Amino acid sequence: MTTTLTAMLHVPDVEPTAAWYARLGFTIDGTASDGDETIWARLTLGDQAIMLNCGGRPPEHDRRDVDLYIGVDDIDARRAELPEEIEVIRDLYLAYHGTREFIIRDPNGFWITFGQWVGEPEASD
Fold first, then answer.
1. Which of 26, 45, 47, 73 has the lowest tally of Cβ within 10 angstroms?
2. How do strand 48-53 and strand 68-71 relate by DSSP bridges?
3. Do 116 and 78 belong together in one domain?
4. Which residues cross the membrane (predicted)?
């Protein structure tokens, strides 16, 4: 049996959000419309997917309750190809759990961490 987990983000405006993710390298695989506006989209990055659905509220805070985490093979290349206008929350750093990461924020306040495994996590006390 195959099981997958796909995050569905509820956003105020699906079409510009999908375009923003496409600038990061996501592919827009499918959309649905109610005749007036795009109300749903499915996007992929490699073999991972997210869905965007209409009806979300604008963010009230700097960070939403859910973050996305994307594992990559070459964190330096991923950071170098990041479009200049993307808001970087935290630039490249070594995380305590053994990954090298950077964090960006999407237009709806969702944080996206890109990380690459580089070694064993630090021992905790």
1. 47
2. unpaired
3. yes
4. none
Q: How many residues does the chain have?
A: 125
Last residue of a domain, one of 42, 58, 74: 58
3-class DSSP state for residue 31?
strand
Single-letter residue type at 64 = R
Q: Looking at the whole model, is its pTM more than 0.85?
A: yes
Based on the structure, what is the number of domains in the chain?
Answer: 2
Identify whether residues 66 and 52 lie together within a single domain. no
CA distance 27 to 82: 15
Share of the chain above pLDDT 90, in %: 86
Tens of pLDDT, residue by residue over 38-96, are 999 999 999 899 999 999 999 898 899 999 999 999 999 999 999 999 999 999 999 99
Would you say 91 and 78 are in contact if contact means Cβ atoms under 8 Å apart? no
Show the domain range for 72: 59-125
